[in-house]
Amino acid sequence: MYFVNIFSVAAILGWGFGRPGGGIWCGGLAAAALSIFTMASGFLAAMAVIGLVVLRALKQRRMTRGQIVTIVGGAAVIALAGGSRWMWRGTRCCRRIRPVIFLPRC
Predict the structure, then answer these.
(1) What total of structural domains would you count in the chain?
(2) CB 3.0–4.6 Å: which of 42, 45, 65, 98 could bond 8 by disulfide?
(3) Predicted TM-score (pTM) of this structure
(4) Does a structural domain hold residue 103?
């Protein structure tokens, strides 16, 4: 449970406040992806970063290339979360093993 908190805070700080394409930004993106695999609510960090970027764009009244890249990365992390849930539901082993991702009930 603590890992999702650590990864989510690292994702919001690194990904939300780092320069797009930089080392801190890439670390935040990796932390967002890792937060998905620790608990089902891990994708909420990506949604928070997308909200932060949209609010910045509204305040500045323009959308920069870096903000677009961050939004696309956030959408990719959310798609990874949804895809992993869909993938586990389609397997036969989900009746025997309860995976860490989303813990689906079959």
Answers:
(1) 1
(2) 45
(3) 0.73
(4) no
